[in-house]
Design a protein that fits this description.
CATH class of the largest domain: Alpha Beta
Shape: globular
Bound molecules: the ligand C[C@H](N)C(=O)N[C@@H](Cc1c[nH]cn1)C(=O)O, zinc ion
CATH topology of the largest domain: Aminopeptidase
Number of strands: 20
Structural class: alpha+beta
Length: 474
């Protein structure tokens, strides 16, 4: 086909493409703490340089400041808005991605250094390899392939690349509103590749869960105390917090906050049947994840609880003694962190009220003199696409061209916070076109992307440009 020279170029350049991913992974652009936002900015500069080399116009859009939990106001990293040369006769595709990463330390249990991309048995290990540096580079390499062969890219291309996705995409929602009539006005399609397949088969994603992230702070004394001197005679902040955290979810994974489960859209018969038809190998999932016993026994229940029911996870406690050894301390202030994944018909502002009211009631029952503060720094809504949108036809055809199979049509249990905002504010067609493998281990130790997914994924994106251009013009 006409795409063959492009695919050949991508195959020939694959070592160079892997080398570039190595350079990107080497930048520890962890967005979880302002202390490392300078690395996020460095990563955004490197990304912008690459887009400039492809002839792109770049704007570093300012998205203001964020008030941190300690009251400090910190300037956020900018968002890259970019555009390649425009031809008004072609449709315009806007590619969203992020170049920040989750935190990673070798001592967390990585086999290799998280910031040194290391290839083992065809897998490229490194923080951000799959989430989301690999896919962002794959888009840029797909553009590069057309340009290197002096072939016209069949669509106009815009980019939105941010460095705060893992921290909730703060500021990007307002920027989207501000630029709706300008940057977004000529956009026909928005594509996001920031998630994974559910099996070895390629997939198109039409829904994601949202996320409400909570901080529960319990403050006791002015300083940490000796547990031999004060233990037994004071209300300990950590004891209060553990009681609160233990009241959120039961051992069967059921959320205990009143109102949460009641809000969830009921499972229809038609939807239930759809789950039976989904190819999902539970044994392979167990093997890949290392989970020996799930909360549910059937593939249908597991997928439903990953895609269409809320879940509550407890992530950590700031201020708790967590080093090795035995320090007999009573921490003065502790902050529990948990999040609740959001599904239709949940509303993050309602969830915030429900959680706050519930925790305040439980805390009051403890008669503790300590101070309780509940905040929700992230409140991202779930996203559901219109699957009859022509963009899904282009996605399916591109998968068929590169992989020779029909893609699975799947949902995503995790969250791309800005997806729902793009949909609500711009009204544009959105698709998720993942290239990450089911066993990539995003956010985990030993995150990886296979060389094959990275390179075939680059071809998929090149084919997607072509297939979009073949759709009837809007
Ligand atoms: C799906 C995406 N690659 C991702 O990992 N998103 C994060 C975003 C998030 C949600 N709450 C806070 N950050 C995720 O789903 O955890
Ligand atoms: Zn991501
Ligand atoms: Zn992520």
């Amino acid at each position: 086909s006409g795409l063959d020279p492009i695919f050949k170029y991508i195959d020939e350049q694959q070592n160079e493409f892997v080398q570039r991913l190595k350079e990107w992974v080497a930048i520890p652009s962890d967005s979880s703490e302002p202390q490392t936002w300078d690395k996020v900015v460095r990563m955004l500069n490197v990304t912008a340089d690459k887009i400039k080399m492809l002839g792109g116009n770049i704007e570093f859009a300012d998205v203001g400041s964020q008030r941190m939990s300690n009251g400090q106001l910190v300037h956020l990293p900018p968002v890259i808005l970019a555009e390649l040369k425009k031809d008004p006769k072609k449709p315009t595709l806007c590619i969203y991605g992020h170049v920040d990463v989750q935190p990673a330390k070798k001592e967390d249990g990585w086999t290799t250094d998280p910031y040194t991309l290391t290839e083992i048995n065809g897998n490229l290990y490194g923080r951000g390899a799959s989430d989301n540096k690999g896919p962002v580079l794959a888009w840029l390499h797909a553009v590069e392939a057309y340009q290197a062969l002096k072939q016209e890219i069949p669509v106009n291309i815009k980019f939105i690349i941010e460095g705060m996705e893992e921290a909730g995409s703060n500021g990007l929602d307002t920027l989207t509103e501000q630029r709706n009539m300008t940057f977004f006005s000529d956009v026909d399609y928005i594509v996001i590749s920031d998630n994974i397949w559910i099996s070895k088969k390629p997939a198109l994603t039409y829904a994601t869960r949202g996320n409400c992230f909570f901080f529960v702070e319990v403050e006791g004394q002015k300083q940490d105390m000796h547990s031999g001197v004060f233990g037994g005679s004071i209300h300990e902040a950590m004891t209060d917090l553990i009681a609160l955290l233990d009241s959120l979810v039961d051992s069967r994974g059921r959320i205990l906050v009143p109102g949460i489960n009641e809000a969830v859209a009921p499972l229809t018969e038609e939807e239930e049947k759809r789950y039976q038809g989904i190819e999902f190998d539970l044994e392979a999932h167990k093997k890949d994840s290392g989970v020996t016993k799930f909360l549910y026994d059937t593939k249908e229940e597991i997928l439903q609880h990953r895609w269409r029911y809320p879940s509550l996870s407890i992530h950590g406690i700031e201020g708790a003694f967590s080093d090795p050894g035995s320090k007999t301390v009573i921490p003065r202030k502790v902050i529990g962190k948990f999040s609740i994944r959001q599904v239709p018909n949940m509303d993050p502002s309602e969830v915030e009220k429900q959680v706050t009211k519930y925790l305040q009631k439980l805390f009051a029952e403890r008669n503790s003199p300590n101070q309780l503060k509940v905040t929700m720094p992230i409140g991202a809504k779930p996203w559901v696409a219109n699957v009859s949108d022509p963009q899904f036809v282009a996605g399916r055809r591109a998968v068929q061209t590169v992989f020779g199979v029909d893609p699975d049509l799947i949902c995503e249990g995790s969250t791309i916070p800005i997806a729902r905002n793009f949909q609500d504010v711009t009204g544009k067609s959105i698709i998720m076109l993942p290239i990450g493998g089911a066993d990539d281990g995003e956010h985990s130790q030993n995150e990886k992307m296979s060389r094959s997914n990275y390179i075939q994924g680059t071809k998929l994106f090149a084919a997607f440009f072509y297939e979009l251009s073949q759709l009837p013009q809007k």
